[in-house]
Amino acid sequence: MKVIENFLIRVAYAVILLTAVLILNFSMMHLAPGDVADTISQSMGGADKEILDQIRADYGLDRPFLIQLGSYIGNVLTFDLGYSFFYNTPVTELILQRLPATLLLVFTAQVLALIIGVMLGVISARRPNGLTSHFVTLLALFGYSAPVFWTGILLLIGFSLNVHWFPVAGMRDVTISGGFWVHFVDVARHLVLPVITLGSIFLALYSRLCRATMLEVLGSDYIRTAKAKGLHDRDVIYKHALKNSLSPVITLAGLQFSAVISGAVLVEAVFSWPGLGTLAFQSIIARDTPTILGILFFSALVVIVGNLLTDLVLRLIDPRIGTK
Amino acid sequence: MTKPIASFENLRVEFETKTGTVVGVEDVSFKIKAKETVCVVGESGSGKSVSSLSMLRLVEFGGGKLTGGTLKFTRKSGETLDITKADQSLMRTIRGNEIGMIFQEPMTALNPLFTVAQQLTEGLRTHKTLGKEAAAKRALELLYQVRIPEPERRLNQYPHELSGGMRQRVVIAMALACEPRLLIADEPTTALDVTIQAEILALIDRLKQETGTAVMFITHDMSVVAQMADRVVVMHRGKKVEEGTVEQIFENPKHDYTKSLLAAVPKLGEMKGKLLPEPMRLMGNENTKFKPLSGSDEPLLIVKNLTTRFAVKGGFLRRTLANVHAVEDVSFTLMKGKTLSLVGESGCGKSTVGRSLLRLVEPLSGQVSIDGQNIVTMSPPELRKARLNMQMVFQDPFASLNPQMLLKDQVADPMRNYNTHSGEALDKRVEMLFDRVKLPHSFLRRYPHELSGGQRQRVAIARALALNPKLIIADEAVSALDVSVQAQVLNLMLELQSELGLSFLFISHDMAVVERVSHDVGVMYLGRIVEFGPRSKIFENPQHAYTKALLKAVPIADPRQRRSENDLNFKPLASPIHSLHYEAVPSAYETISEGHFILTTDSGY
Question: Using one digit for the tens of pLDDT, what is the confidence trace for B436-460?
Fold first, then answer.
């Protein structure tokens, strides 16, 4: 099958890209002044050159650059991202601990923003001068321009401090006990404000883009053909028009996978969300090289897999992609 | 007397625009009976499409409003309905069900994301409440009826996998799906090649005979009208100016506008026995006589073995997978002061030849000499200098002019680039060029959007003339224009040729226009010239099978010379894409008479 062959080619590109990211990350970290030995000696209150050399030899930091790089790549291939001296835990374990929280936050925000954004986009495209349309324009402007931490803090003040509807921080309340549903509701309650904060950026993007492409599609010839067939408005809009205007929105959504790190750091910081963003922030402060490298690798992996998925979805929607 | 299927009575359609109300259609009345084809003919902006969209009440989606008159439609039940008073939900039961519509552009009229079967069955399932299987069966039947090659395979294909002609067949099948009483065809063949046009016209005509549906056929092309119509309605600026049987309109037109419209249409074959090109007839200025140039026998442009290929890239690391053999071993000579036309259907490589000559695309091999210098081997600075002598006029004057630039600057631009004129001399020359192409000086300080298509093309010609070139390559330069405007622009080109001794390479798909303006003609097919010779030889004594077929497909603006479906015998266009190992054979020609050659090696036809 041509589609599968093309997709496999994309996967091969992705692997090459990921290796390049690995090399680049490692080299940059290597070039930056200071290493683990410095950090460890600092935590011991200082050490002389001999001890530093000893530490470096213990951790293999005295070997030539290429050999270090080679062993790093070899380890990554076996999902060994190294050992965090700061947390005293293997990096892979550390990341896997934090990953679910971040994924939960980002995916919920993404999916909700996609669904609501597309709905708002469609409604406002049908009546470009209607109330919803003006609302979408305003919302988009707000979503673009309001900084995440500001929105987050405002929501906290409004809904956690003033009316106590939602918890202030964290992902779960350690004091409660009960079955699955009790915990589910608890996490969901913690999730609301971070999701609104993060989702507002996505929502602004998607609703605006969907409105624009939908307007364009509604003016196209095949929509007129569909109307001339005597189809119901519902079919014309949600079948013929929507499918055609989804591609750009999905492309954009795919690009937003990078928000797993970039967007989430700020939101996680505001809401003390125990995710990758918080971990990244802490390890940068602690100069915990293996953890930073691990997170960089992981975010690259998420972005690349996200793009592959986007590509696959686009291929499923649009038969013209990858056939020429 | 049987009731007409549809009747337009004093229809008036208005459009609200920012600058006020514009009347799109005013007081138009005519009737369409069963088994009758009524052609509504007129130039762009005449309101012909607006009338047809009113019948479906689709005009409202484009911002139009029915503000007067009635549209009577006789339904299957025999009841007569006033379409102007029907609400949209009632209209939905008529659209696609009792009135089918075929649109102009088959490339965009189909939804790219749904298969042929999905788009064909949709209407059936809505109107006839057929089940999935029954609808699929009917869809296949329809594809057989419109004689699409390999109908079973088409069902599960997407529009982009079909050629333009096949797509239009699908659009027609869609319009016919529910056996409508009225079929509205809005310029259904305008975007198609002439051989495919001939097939589609024959198809619509046969389907009308078979199903007894009434046909409202909208077109700007009088030749198509002559082939299709029982009765003709001529529209001009939103009004009906004349109505009559096709014979009356063609043989005894009453209204001046009809007369001028007919005059401007070149008729294939009317140049028989004439040696030189002739200006187009235009009503009202028969007096502007100028003598078309006989040209010299001194070569200006010699093209030898020109080959241009494009790589098809794909796969891992974007390797070259195959080559598009766009132009394959083409040779010809253009004499000073003459017009050489390259004709052929879309994809035959005629435009690529034009672009390769200027090296707007890089030819793979071959020689192009203008005044003895080989353009193909020139360095960039030499090429820049050589382009002084060769200028181009493109097809779409809406796209080839910069919308943000004053017209005088656009015409002055080449002279500024080459620093040939400056200061007052430059202004003077721009004014002179505007006079040349017969545009008033008041246009100097205007922008392209303030001009009509014909006026814009005049600006494009003025720009091409700015550097005093010896050769102008006109790539479908009049194809996008209305007939009367087309005639004016063609006459301007002929006049400039006779005054300035210009040579034209005229690239066109329109055989009738080519017959009128050329000295020599090259017929192209699949990247090669299959027949080349003086215009009279090509048109009066065509030798190559493809030239014959092409000439047979051209509709003639005379209702007494209709083509029948049996005359048509076309093969689908072969693909110019070949694998990397493919070795193209050199073109070999046989001389029929002096200057008249046909290709003897395989043309792919």
Answer: 888 999 999 999 888 888 889 999 9
Q: Write out residues 202-221 of A within 8 Å (CB-CB) of B.
A: 220-221
List CB contacts (< 8 A) between B97 and chain A.
Answer: 230
B95 touches chain A (CB under 8 A): yes
Is A244 in contact with B111 (Cβ distance < 8 A)? yes
Mean pLDDT of the region B453-469: 91
> Which of B113, B122, B127 shows the shortest C-beta gap to A319?
B113
Q: Which pairs from B20-29 meet CB under 8 Å and 24+ separation?
A: B23/B238, B24/B50, B24/B59, B24/B64, B24/B238, B25/B50, B25/B51, B25/B54, B25/B238, B26/B238, B26/B239, B27/B68, B27/B69, B27/B239, B27/B240, B28/B69, B28/B235, B28/B238, B28/B239, B28/B240, B29/B69, B29/B240
Instruction: Tell me the three state secondary structure of residue B153.
Output: helix
B103 and A317 within 8 Å at the Cβ level: the answer is: no
Residues of B in contact with A235 (CB under 8 A): 122, 126
Chain B contact present for A4, CB below 8 A = no
The predicted pLDDT at position A89 comes to 87
CB distance B105–A224 less than 8 Å? no
The 10s digit of each residue's pLDDT in B287-298 is 556 677 777 888
CA distance B85 to A284: 72
Q: Which residues of B touch A231 (CB under 8 A)?
A: 92, 96, 122-123, 126
- Sheet with strand B520-525: strands edge to edge: B390-393, B471-475, B503-508, B339-343, B520-525, B528-534, B596-599, B589-593
Give the pair of three-digit tokens for residue A223.
Answer: 């929509």
Q: Please, are residues B559 and B229 in contact by the beta-carbon 8 Å criterion?
A: yes
Share of residues in chain B with pLDDT > 90 (%): 45
The answer to whether B576 and B526 have CB atoms below 8 angstroms apart is yes
pLDDT of residue A44 exceeding 80, the answer is: no
Range among A90-94, B166-170, B304-308 with highest mean pLDDT value:
B304-308
- Cross-strand partners of B393: B474
B110 and A222 within 8 Å at the Cβ level: the answer is yes
| Whether pLDDT at B552 is above 70 | yes
Q: What's the confidence (pLDDT) of residue B250?
A: 92
Q: Which of B111, B112, B175 lies at the smallest CB-CB distance from A226? A: B111
Residue type, B546: Y
**Partner-chain residue, chosen from A226, A230, A318, that has the shortest CB–CB distance to B93:** A230
- CA B530 – CA B197 distance, rounded (Å): 22
> What does pLDDT average to over chain A?
84
Alpha helix (H) ranges present in B158-216?
A: 164-176, 194-211
Cα–Cα distance for residue pair B489/B478, rounded to 1 Å: 7
Q: What is chain B's mean pLDDT, rounded?
A: 88
Task: Compute the distance between CA of residue B407 and CA of residue B404 in angstroms, rounded to an integer.
Answer: 9
What is the predicted ipTM?
0.79
Among candidates B92, B93, B315 on the partner chain, residue whose Cβ is nearest the Cβ of A9: B315
Q: How far A18 CA lies from chain B's nearest CA (Å)?
A: 16
CA distance B93 to B56: 11
Asked if B158's CB is within 8 angstroms of A9's CB, the reply is: no
